[in-house]
Each structure stands twice: as C-alpha cells, then as structure tokens.
Design goal:
Strand order of the largest sheet of chain A: 2-1-3
Number of helices of chain A: 2
Number of strands of chain A: 3
Shape of chain B: elongated
Helix content of chain B: 10-25%
Largest sheet of chain B: 7 strands, antiparallel
Mean pLDDT of chain B: 65
Oligomer: heterodimer
Low-confidence stretches of chain B: 205-384, 386-405, 409-418, 420-492, 541-558, 589-608
Number of strands of chain B: 35
Strand content of chain B: 25-35%
Number of helices of chain B: 21
C-alpha cells in the first residue's frame, strides 16, 4: 500500500511546462498520475494554443506555461 | 589477516539456529552478523534481568554463508561491545558463545568458544552510560574446524553475574559510529565488533537479484552455470525483485542447465522485452531444436518485441493466455521438416519479397492458402500472421496495400493450417492480388506456403484468370480517372477531399479530409483509398454551374432528379442532383449484388508516414533526444493502426459491459497516438514498441454501490471475458488510488483492453486527487506545492474514508478539508 503524493502530479506538470511559450498537453484520464500527459504542440502565444485547444474535446487538454 | 564483524541493530538473520545452553533466553533476539558495516544507529538493546547466578542470552548473531576451506585452528577472538549494569549490588558481567553451524542453521558444525566468560573478569559499569566491555580479548578457539561451503558463524552474546540478587544489564548495538576501542574504558557511543585472527571469506552468492547483477556488469551477459558452480547452492533465484514494472516471477535455473548443452544465455534482453508473467526457460529450450541459443539474439529478431511466453508453455496447465507472435517460435526451424504436399513452394526469404497470386476477376472472393508449419512443438498454440496484401488495380494503381492480421490456431502436432484470404472486389475492377509477408515472417525459413493448383506461382499472373470461370464483369472504370476527366472538362483546377456524412471510423481518410489539391498534383491521393471508402472529391467552386454542365451529358431517367452521363470509357452513370461523379459510382457500387463484404480484410490500411507522424516524431525526439526520429515516426504510424483496431475492440467491450452492468456507468477511451508514442520515450526500458502498451484501450465501470458490488462485477467479467491480468488497487491502493484493473483480451484480435472497476466514491476521489490537480492554474499549483503534506494527508484521509463508506462502515469521519484545497479545487 502506498500513500498519495501530490508531488507526482506536480512533477509531471513541471515536466510538461516550457520555460518559454505555451504547451498544449493532452490529459489521459485513464492513466495513472505521472503518466497522464502527452505534448500535443508548443506555441509561442496563448492565443495560438487556445485556438488549437478548441479542436480537442473539452476537458481533455490543458495549456501549461510559466508566468513571467 | 584478521576479519572483523559488526552487530546491526535490526537486520534479521536468514536462518534460526537454536540458542546455546543459556539458562535464560527470554527476550533474546536473533540478528545478522555482518562483515560490512551498515548504517544502523548505536542504540541500547534489551534491558535484561535474570535470576542471580545463571546466564542470560542477550542476542544471537548469525553470519551469511561462508566459503569452503576456511580453517579455524588456533584462531584468536576479540569482541568489544558497550554494556552496563543497573544495580550497584549486581556485579553483572559478560558471557560469550561462538560456534559454526551449517547453511540451514540446524546443525552445529563446531563450537569455537563454548559458553563462558572470556576477556577480563570485570563487572559492567553501573551508571547511566554504557562502557566498552571486552567480551573476549584474544581468546583462542578451543575447537578446530575447516568450513564446508555455506557454513555460518554464530556469535551469542549474553550476561551473567558475579554477585547480587537482582542482576540487570544491557548492551549497545548498531554500526553507525567509529569502532569501539579495544579497551574497557571508552564511554563514547561506538560500534561493537568481533574480530577473528584468520581470513574469513564468504560464499560468492546464494540467491541474487538479476537487476542488481545487471547493474554490476557492463556487458550484461553472464553465465548462469558458472555462477551456480561458484555458489554451489540452491538452484533457484528470483529474477525480478527489483524490476518493479514487470511481473516476472521465478524460474528454475537448474532446468535451464539440464535442458541446454551450451549453458550460456543472455538474460538482459529478456528482461527488457518481456512484459508478461512467468515463464520457464526449460520449457522454451525444449522447443528449440538445437538447444543452444541466445535469448537476446532471439528477441532482437522479433519485430514486435512483445509476446506471451506462456503461450509456448501451453502443453498443459500453465497457460492462461495463448497469444504470441509466430516468429518467436519459427526462429527455431529445422527446414527439412514441414515440406510436404503435392505442390509446394517456399517463400524465397529475402530474394523475392512478393508472393503473387493470379489475377482475380471482379467479385471474386477468396483464395485458400495453406500454411505448412514447421511443427516440432507438441503443443497447442495460436499463431498470428501479419501480412501485407495488395490489390493491384490494373493499369491504374500500382499497389493498394492492406495490412492484415490473421490468427490461426494449431492443434498439437498439426503441421498445416488453412488460411482463407477473402478479397473484396466491390470496385468492379480487375485486380491482381499480391501478398507480402512482413519482414519478420519472411525470415522464417521453415514456413512453407502451398497454393493449390498453382505449381509455379511466379508465372501465373494475368493469363490464367479464366480458370476461375466467373462471369465477365461489367465494364467499369476506375473512379479517379472518370472524375479527373470530368473535372478536366469543367476546367476546374482544384478539388477538395471530402468524407461522406456516414464516415464514422477514423482511418487514413481523415488525414486527407478537407485537403485541397490541384487536379494534377502528383501527391493527390487516389480514390478509393480503401474498400468501403466513404470519401469523394468535390470540385472547388470556380463559379461555374456544375449542374448545368452535367445536364449536357445525358438525360434523366427513372432515378429521380439527376442526369445520366457516359464517360469516355463508355460507361453510363446516373448522377443525382447535387451528387458528384464519385458519389454516383460509390452509390452504384453499394447496390451491386455481388459486392462482397470483407471478413478477414482489412483491419487497417497500411499507412505511410505523413506530416502529422513526422510532427509527432519531431516533438517527442526533441523531448527525448536519444530516441531515433525514424523509429518514432514508424511508431506513430503503428500507433495510428493500433488505435483503429483498439477503437473497435473498445467499442465492443464498452457495449458488452454496458449491457452486462446496466446499473453501472460505463465509459471508454482509446489512448491518443501522441500519448502512446510519448510513453516509449518516457519508459524506454519497459516499452520498445507501441504494440507492447497494455492500456491503449480502456473501459471504466463505475458502480453506484460499494466494494462488494465492485468485486461482484469483477467476478462476473472474469466469467464472461478472457481476463489475463488483474490488479486489486482497492484492497492494496496505489498512492491512495483505489480501483480494480483487469486486462481483458479480445478473442478475435488478441488485443488487450484495460477495464477499471471502481465505486462512485473512488471515481469521485480520483477526479479530485488527480484530474482536478492537473487542471490547476499556475498560482494554485504553487499553493499545492507549498502545502504538500496537508494535501497529501487530506487525500489519503479521504481515500480511507471513502473505502470505509464503500465497505459499509457508516460512522467513518470525514477528514477536515484544508484551506489550500477549499480555495482551489474545492472539498470532496
């Protein structure tokens, strides 16, 4: 039996968060934490990322970026 | 050369020799004597009391197995340990016993120091501080002995008293400090030790973990035989203690050595590639004719790199699953066997990539092929053939390839199987069928394909079509040609690729959907892309009235509003209003009574990499620079193929489970191509090919009831479906996550879907603890990062709380919701 550790999720998000720009990432709701994310595409602007995000089913993607 | 040992605080001994003739052994502990200092802290052991005048055992320490041939003759022994007594009147002091026992610990080989007092006969210090005590200070062993391999040293440390009525004493054990000085004055915490004046060596190994072994060797190759000779001990070992992601259990090395003459194999590749269950090397070797092979080499030749060894073992009671790829077996051929029959031919392995079958006339339907299998394995098994079949559209399209999978079950001792290959001819075109056996299949020397009545298949191509005695087909033209002609006549420069409204299953057509091409663009795909293709070309609007133009081509008859046209090829086709020529042809094709439905063909068009695949390969290679881009591209294509197959499997399974458990909420998904390929980069040691992924398709069954209902659902699924693996995360939660996971095999395709069964509460928990966290804003993530412990505690508490509720414990108390959660994802 192992204990929940939110670090697993936060670490995975960090892995998919670019230093610069915006990553559109798909979330696999069937996978276990730490294996849920996959990069769809990287964008220079949030507008581009959001536009592409609209092509995907709602709630299945997320845009990760670092706040400057 | 002297040998020194230390006394760990808690490390348990591997065996349990009987204690010596101590008067009292209550509270005595048994621990491991180590020759490498560990990290256990120096800690006070048990405070013992005993009846005055007798001996009290404190601890027994037992070593690992010794090497053979160590002489204990005139050997001296020193032992220093920190000790104290507790009452002024006690005068407690040390006692010691040293002996050698056999490997199992159940036989005394020799007593080296009989239970007694050694070292200075001075009582322990009596105050709050322990002090060094020489339990032995150069005492010579009284018994002489030369060790047999596997013997163990046993040191028993205890106490007695010189005077007093209520003796009490304790020692300090542990390793994490400087060694105690060889004196009776030191009071600083120090590690106790025992030292022998001879050189004591240990047996090389007894049981070992393969993982550790692999880390220790650069070549990753070793000879099991030589290891066992050095160890000379039990011939079983665990292969997988550290290979967390795998399920491999144990196997018997002994059987390997009996079964093979060579006694050499490479195990590393095996561990990297095998993802399933348990196996017996012995059984594998019985299947291999020459009994000498390198597993590593074997697996490198297997393109799919995933198979269930269990299937090989299907000689009796072991196997649960029966699927594996043919090359796993057929790489061990003996070509002399397996060739039989009146007419036969081999697939010329590398020299001739294509096996050509005579041209089929329109509406022809099937070809019987006989696969003659090298069969030296007395087992029932199922083989999977991977074949590329090509429809060669005469003079129009060079190849139209389809990718087939065909499962055949071979009975024990069977030597051939019939594969009926059905060819769809709905397009009313003459075609030649070409089979290409995939690369790995071609390399199977022993496989023979026999085609009845076709003694020389390479020469029978177009000329012999009449032997099929089929009616002369109606003269039709290929769709693309007619359409191009029409477009040309309309002076249209561009066309758009369109899907019909009822195009439901995602396939290659989707890649082209809404793409605009110049009419003469050489990259413009040819239609139809595959049988049952629900796509067509649409003219780019040039401002001209197409309907008006068509009106000049013919007069409407009895098929409603529309026009008849006659193409250059002399074919008359009725085009309804608003319909393109392609649509008209498709409609007509569907009405053709002789149209055959594909049964065995095709699961998926064999795709070539597209820009999209290249993009996937690029981004993943950027993230995992060690990955080969071409490989990733190939995997992306393969992932797309797999997705299509899994989509069907998942849809079926979803429907079945939905009908089966009407009170439950059933959902399903197929993993994205991106995610599948990403996983190869993320876990290269576990997955080398997307076909190895076990969770491509998943179905979730959420019960409105409790844990008992979940288990009842699981039991029922086991009776109605082929379950090849299961993980009970309900009783053994993984990071708070509770659910029951089943690997369900699809009978037709052998594909495995993951079925997750859980309660509503567990589903609710997962949504909060996982999905919502992934959707946190950057600021809220920071909040989470700063409050990890509180959040973890809450999530674990809620997991437990829900588990209790689902188990019928109604008085479970919900843990308080911390502000960092209340203000972000909200409380459960």
């Amino acid at each position: 039996m192992s204990q929940y550790d939110v670090s697993t999720i936060l670490d995975e998000i960090d892995e998919f968060t670019p230093d610069v720009g915006f990553n559109l990432v798909s979330i696999d709701e069937f996978a276990l934490p730490g294996e849920k994310l996959a990069l769809i595409a990287h964008f220079d602007t949030i507008e581009e990322a959001k536009k592409t995000q609209e092509e995907y089913p709602p709630d299945k993607t997320e845009i990760y970026f670092k706040k400057n | 050369m002297v040998t020194r040992f230390w006394f760990p605080l808690n490390t348990i001994s591997d065996v349990n020799p009987n204690f010596g003739a101590w008067n009292e052994v209550d509270g005595a502990l048994r621990r491991k004597l180590v020759n490498v200092k560990g990290t256990s802290a120096i800690t006070i052991g048990t405070r013992h009391n005993w009846v005055a005048g007798v001996t009290q055992l404190d601890r027994q320490y037992v070593s690992d197995p010794l090497a053979a041939g160590i002489s204990f003759s005139a050997v001296t022994v020193k032992l220093v340990l920190m000790a104290r007594e507790y009452n002024n009147a006690d005068n407690s002091t040390s006692r010691l016993l040293v002996k050698i026992v056999n490997r199992a610990g159940d036989t005394i080989q020799q007593t080296l120091l009989a239970l007694g007092q050694f070292g200075p006969n001075v009582e322990y210090i009596n105050n709050a501080t322990h002090r060094n005590k020489q339990f032995a200070n150069g005492d010579i062993v009284t018994g002489t002995y030369v060790t047999a391999q596997g013997d163990r040293l046993v040191v028993e440390i205890g106490h007695a008293d010189i005077a007093g009525a209520t003796p009490e004493a304790s020692c300090k054990f542990g390793e994490n400090a400087a060694d105690a000085g060889d004196n009776e004055t030191g009071t600083t915490d120090a590690a106790g030790w025992i030292e022998f004046s001879n050189n004591i060596k240990f047996e090389q190994t007894k049981t070992f973990k393969v993982d550790a072994l692999l880390k220790a060797t650069k070549t990753k190759t070793f000879k099991i035989d030589s290891i066992l000779k050095k160890s000379g001990i039990a011939k079983t070992f665990k292969i997988d203690a550290n290979l967390v992601k795998r399920f491999t259990k144990t196997f018997t090395v002994d059987s390997i050595l009996k079964a093979t003459q060579n006694k050499t194999f490479t195990i590393d590749a095996l561990l990297r590639l095998i993802t399933t269950k348990s196996f017996s090397i012995d059984a594998i070797l019985r299947l291999v004719s020459n009994k000498t092979f390198t597993i590593d080499a074997l697996l490198k030749q297997i393109n799919f790199k995933a198979f269930t060894i269990n299937a090989i073992l299907t000689s009796g009671s072991i196997t649960k699953t029966k699927t594996f790829l043919i090359d796993a077996i057929l790489l061990t051929p003996s070509p002399e066997k397996g060739i039989r029959g009146r007419v036969r031919t081999r697939i010329p392995t590398v020299l001739a990539p294509f096996l050509e079958i005579p041209t089929k006339t329109p509406f022809s339907q099937s070809y019987p092929l006989f696969l003659e299998i090298e069969e030296e394995f007395s087992i029932k098994k199922q083989i999977e053939l991977n074949i590329i079949a090509a429809l060669l559209l005469e003079n129009k399209v060079e190849f139209d390839e389809y990718y087939y999978k065909k499962f055949l079950t071979l009975n024990p001792f069977s030597t051939q199987a019939q594969l009926t290959l059905s060819i769809q001819s709905e397009f009313s075109i003459e075609n030649k069928v070409i089979l290409e056996i995939e690369e790995k299949f071609k390399a199977i020397h022993a496989l023979v394909i026999e085609i009845i009545d076709k003694p020389n298949i390479t020469t029978q191509i177009l000329e012999e079509r009449d032997i099929y005695d089929l009616p002369e087909p109606p003269k039709l033209i290929t769709l693309g040609s007619a359409a191009s002609q029409l477009f040309f006549e309309q002076e249209t420069q561009q066309v758009i690729y369109r899907l019909e409204d009822n195009h439901e299953v995602e396939d290659e057509c989707d890649f082209y959907s809404d793409e605009v091409y110049d009419i003469d663009d050489p990259d413009k795909p040819d239609l139809p892309i595959h049988p049952n293709c629900k796509c067509y070309w649409e003219l780019v609007d040039t401002g001209e009235d197409l309907g008006q133009s068509l009106a000049t081509l013919g007069a409407a008859e009895d098929e409603g509003p529309g026009r008849w046209i006659t193409t250059d090829e002399g074919v008359r086709v009725f085009i309804k209003e608003g319909e393109t020529l392609e649509q008209a042809f498709i409609r007509r094709s569907k009405k053709t009574p002789e149209r055959k439905t594909i049964v065995n063909l095709p699961l998926q068009k064999y795709k070539k990499p597209t820009e999209r695949h290249e993009a996937i390969a690029n981004k993943i290679q950027k993230k995992y620079p060690n990955m080969d881009k071409e490989f990733l591209k190939e995997q992306a294509v393969k992932a797309d193929n797999l997705r299509v197959e899994h989509e069907k499997v998942m849809t079926n399974l979803h429907g079945e489970l939905g009908n089966q458990f009407k009170d439950a909420d059933v959902t399903g998904r197929v993993k994205d191509t991106d995610n599948m390929v990403e996983k190869l980069g993320r876990k290269p040691d576990v997955y080398q090919d997307v076909s190895q992924l076990q969770d491509v398709s998943g179905v979730r069954v959420v019960s409105a009831k409790g844990n008992d209902d979940v288990k009842s659902i699981v039991s029922e699924i086991k009776t109605t479906h082929t379950v090849i693996s299961e993980e009970n995360y309900i009783d053994q939660p993984k990071a708070g996550y509770r659910s029951y996971h089943l690997g369900v095999e699809d009978k037709k395709t052998g594909l495995i879907s993951e079925v997750q069964v859980r309660t509503q509460n567990q589903d609710h928990w997962a949504t909060f603890a996982h999905d919502k966290v992934y959707k946190l804003s950057g600021e809220d993530r920071l909040k989470f990062a700063q409050n990890k412990e509180v959040i973890n505690s809450y999530m674990n508490g809620m997991s437990e709380h829900y588990f209790k509720l689902d188990s019928g414990i109604t008085n479970s108390v919900k843990p308080p919701c911390p502000p960092s959660i209340a203000s972000t994802i909200g409380c459960m």
